[in-house]
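Quick one, C-alpha cells below. Sequence please?
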C-alpha cells in the first residue's frame, strides 16, 4: 500500500465493503492459530479443545443511533446484542465482552449509568461477562465499541462460505420490522420538530419499535438447530438487509441463489406500516436492516426436520454460481438481487 501518493480517492467510491476489501487485501496471516481472519461474522482462533470466535462492532451517535428518541438503556442493551448476534451467526456461544466508550461533557453520570444498566441487562440475559474496556473523551457525541468473545468446538463452527448447490435457504423470525420501527421514530421526530406540543403517535406499533430499539440475538435459534440435529452449511446474521446478506453468503460460497418473494416472512404490522409509508414491504426487507435474524443454508435432506419449525422459514434454494443471485417476485418475474444494504460511506 502506498501511503505517500498524492491522489485523492473518495471513500464513497468504494463503499463500506469495497473499503474493507481494499484495506485488508495485504494482510498476511502468520499465526498458525488464526483459523479465519477478515471476511466472516467473526474471526476464529484455535485454542486447542475449543476455538475462539471474536467480533467487534462500533456504534456512533448520529450515524447508528439518535439520542433524541433512543433511550440510553435500550442503546446499551442493543449495542451488546448486535455483537452477540455475530457470535451466534458463527454457531458459537458468546462468553465475554469488552466495552469501550467515548463520551462528551454532555453526558452526566446518571446518563452513563443508564447505558451500563442496559448493557448489564443484556449480559445477564445472555449469560455473558463484561470483562473490560476503555473510557475516553469525545468531542462529538457518544461512541460505543464492543468486542464479543465466544467459543465453539471446531466441528460446530459455521462459516459464510459453506453453502452448496441445492441447499435450502432459511431465515429465522420475520424481517423488516426494525426498519419500519426506525421509519416511525424518524417520522415522529420530524413531526415533533415542527410542533413540539404534539405527542408522538406510536400507538399500535409496539412490535416495530421493540424490534428497532430492543432487538434480541437468536440464541434460541442456534439452540433449536442443535436440538434438531442440524448443522447449517453456511450462516450469517442479518444486520444490513436480506439482499446484501444473501449476496455475502453466495459470493463467499461461490454459488447462486433463487429467493422467492412470496416466502419472505413479514409480520402483518410490518407489511401494513410499510404500505402506510408508501413503501414496498419487500424492498424494506431486502434493503432495510437491523433485523438480527439468522440467515442460513441447510442440506435438502434436513427439510423434514425444519418444515414444522414455526420460527424458521425456507425462502429459497442455492443454485449454481452461473445462474446468479435471483429473486422470483410474487408476479413471477425474475430480478437480480442488488446489494442495497446500507452504505454508511455514501455522500449525503
Ligand atoms: P458484520 O456486518 O457481520 O458486523 P462487517 O460487514 O462489519 O460484518 O465486516 C465484514 C468483515 O470485515 C468482518 O470479518 C470484519 O471483521 C472485517 N472488517 C471490518 N472492518 C475492518 C477493518 N477496518 N479492518 C479489518 N477488518 C475489518
Ligand atoms: Mg454479521
Amino acid at each position: 500500500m502506498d501511503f505517500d501518493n498524492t491522489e485523492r480517492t473518495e471513500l464513497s467510491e468504494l463503499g463500506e465493503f469495497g473499503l474493507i476489501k481494499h484495506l485488508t487485501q495485504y494482510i498476511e496471516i502468520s499465526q498458525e492459530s488464526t483459523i479465519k481472519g477478515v471476511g466472516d461474522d467473526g474471526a476464529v482462533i484455535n485454542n486447542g479443545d475449543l476455538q475462539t470466535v471474536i467480533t467487534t462492532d462500533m456504534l456512533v451517535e448520529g450515524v447508528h443511533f439518535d439520542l433524541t428518541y433512543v433511550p440510553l438503556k435500550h442503546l446499551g442493551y442493543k449495542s451488546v446484542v448486535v455483537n452477540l448476534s455475530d457470535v451466534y451467526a458463527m454457531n458459537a456461544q458468546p462468553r465475554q465482552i469488552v466495552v469501550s466508550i467515548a463520551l462528551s461533557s454532555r453526558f452526566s453520570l446518571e446518563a452513563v449509568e443508564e447505558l451500563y444498566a442496559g448493557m448489564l441487562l443484556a449480559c445477564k440475559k445472555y449469560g455473558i461477562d463484561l470483562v473490560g474496556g476503555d473510557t475516553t473523551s469525545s468531542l462529538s457525541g457518544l461512541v460505543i465499541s464492543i468486542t464479543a468473545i465466544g467459543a465453539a468446538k471446531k466441528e460446530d463452527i459455521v462459516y459464510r462460505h459453506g453453502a452448496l448447490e441445492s441447499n435450502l435457504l432459511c431465515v429465522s423470525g420475520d424481517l423488516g420490522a426494525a426498519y419500519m420501527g426506525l421509519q416511525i421514530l424518524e417520522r415522529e421526530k420530524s413531526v415533533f420538530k415542527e410542533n413540539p406540543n404534539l405527542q408522538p403517535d406510536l400507538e399500535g406499533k409496539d412490535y416495530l419499535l421493540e424490534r428497532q430499539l430492543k432487538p434480541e440475538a437468536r440464541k434460541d435459534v442456534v439452540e433449536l438447530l442443535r436440538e434438531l440435529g442440524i448443522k447449517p452449511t453456511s450462516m450469517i446474521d442479518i444486520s444490513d438487509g436480506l439482499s446484501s446478506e444473501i449476496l455475502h453468503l453466495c459470493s463467499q460460497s461461490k454459488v447462486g441463489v433463487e429467493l422467492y418473494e412470496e416466502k419472505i416472512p413479514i409480520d402483518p404490522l410490518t407489511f401494513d406500516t410499510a404500505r402506510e409509508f408508501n413503501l414496498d414491504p419487500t424492498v424494506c426487507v431486502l434493503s432495510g436492516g437491523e433485523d438480527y435474524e439468522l440467515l442460513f443454508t441447510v442440506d435438502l435432506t434436513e427439510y423434514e426436520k425444519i418444515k414444522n419449525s414455526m420460527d424458521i422459514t425456507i425462502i429459497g434454494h442455492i443454485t449454481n454460481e452461473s445462474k446468479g443471485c435471483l429473486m422470483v417476485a410474487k408476479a413471477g418475474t425474475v430480478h437480480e438481487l442488488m446489494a442495497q444494504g446500507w452504505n454508511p460511506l455514501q455522500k449525503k
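The chain is about 30% helix and 25% strand. The pocket of adenosine-5'-diphosphate (ligand 1) is lined by residues 20, 23-24, 38-41, 57, 86, 239 (CB under 6 Å).
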